[in-house]
């Protein structure tokens, strides 16, 4: 388990972390999710020992690590831009941590081959990092980090430098790898979809603080703030409340509590249909429907419809007047 | 930039003429004049005891100055590229002083510090150490003039590669020395090699600062460049050309070494 208590970090006048506390359960895959500049990478680097906090405590498996150097923390760290040792072959990269620990040659070779097998790079032993694709380099970096059998694995935007397709493949792969290896993992990302799709637990960060911690489902269904709600998925404003576009029901007749709106635009996206409506007070409203629902309503531009929220009451009234957000 | 063929040919001709007039012809003439009277005369001229000693002294001085400046240069480059400390800007500017100041001024300043009537002179004389008009002075002058090369070659390389690889090594359990030896040094080796080659060339060719502090005692404190100057001043033109040719050959050899320093294809990744 990783346990962070009351960590504060300043860079000059800028407060990067403001009294942050977090627990990462053993064997979990936890995501630190937040916009850039929210402090998530700084928190990860403090846990990894690459930065030192101005105040607070970092524990790994119950041991205080706050003043322990990175090399003695027993962590594996994966960087956004791979940090591959460019002058070494894939084999030497992965073996680095083991040779530093002066393990017997035969053991090192066997372990490297085993790890390269796990990350799908068997046969790439004698290549140099420049001869690998971005995704392969990151998998090599992961094998290198896992080689020393770290107590915790820390990943700093590991797929951030890859293109969308590779990123989606790799995160599925990482999830499966985690189910096999079970090492306690903390992953930093600004991509809510990435966090939602692979993490057991997500900690949402904003403005140097942790906003909310919970399972993806909890965060999506019961966000504790408008920020978390907006960050985890598209939202739209209906009256005073923020709702998800798919939590809005349309009908031709007025229902209790429903509002009148005019259809401004209908977009068919395969199974999904997005309708843009304008409420009586001029506010715009985005609604997400299934194709079946849309066909049943025979939505057309200019129609007058009645809308109401089907979401559980959340009382997320929000004063700021930003209308449409995705 | 696109230019018409006529312009392109014209520009090339001008560039080549410039190089030819200023570089190829003079250096070529030195070789021509050297071997004008046959190889035997040349051989005799560069194998006199004074010449051999000058050659040895030049190599000795280089062999002391270059390693020292290489170590200093790497440490300084690390401090400049990685460190956060007060006065870094000033030190960074001062490193270039040996390039900016005329070598003869450097020589004179060394005399002021280490000479008999200099700052440290009396103390050194009492201790029985002679710096000025002796080999230590030549070494000091040579170190001074060749100081910036390695720093200036290595610092930008260090900045460019960043410190992520070093951080990765630390998280994998490597200490500072292991990280330096196995990660940092291999990444900057071409920068270091380039700096060393330039330093060697400068050390061998240094004249101004060395000429002030050497005292030019034949067979004792004459370096190759001083020997050329001495022979030239004594109207021993053939001897001067022969020694010059030797210097030029060493320089060519160094440059050749530099062009064979051709980074292995590790790519940019």
Characterize this entry briefly.
The complex is a heterodimer of chains A (326) and B (269). Chain A has 9 helices and 17 strands.
Describe the structure.
The complex is a heterodimer of chains A (326) and B (269). With 326 residues, chain A is of the alpha+beta class. Chain A has helices spanning 40-48, 90-100, 105-118, 134-147, 164-181, 192-198, 216-221, 226-232, 291-297, and strands at 2-11, 14-24, 29-33, 55-60, 63-64, 75-78, 152-156, 184-189, 201-206, 209-214, 236-238, 241-243, 248-251, 259-269, 272-279, 284-290, 304-309. In chain A, the strands form four sheets. Chain A has a six-stranded mixed beta sheet, with helices on both faces. Chain A has a five-stranded antiparallel beta sheet with strand order 13-17-14-15-16. A four-stranded antiparallel beta sheet of chain A has the order 2-1-4-5, covered by helices on one side. Chain A starts with a strand and ends in a 17-residue tail after the last strand. Helices cover 77% and strands 0% of the residues of chain B. Chain B has helices at residues 5-35, 39-46, 49-82, 88-94, 97-100, 103-114, 121-126, 135-145, 148-161, 164-171, 176-205, 208-214, 224-233, 237-260. In chain B, helix 8 (135-145) packs antiparallel against helix 12 (208-214). In chain B, 36% of the residues are buried. Chain B contains 14 helices and no strands. Classes of the chains: A alpha+beta (326), B mainly alpha (269). Chain A binds chain B through residues 48-50, 69-73, 75-77, 79, 81, 83-88, 96-97, 100-101, 128-132, 137, 141, 144-145, 147-148, and chain B through 164-165, 167-175, 178, 182-183, 186-187, 265-269.
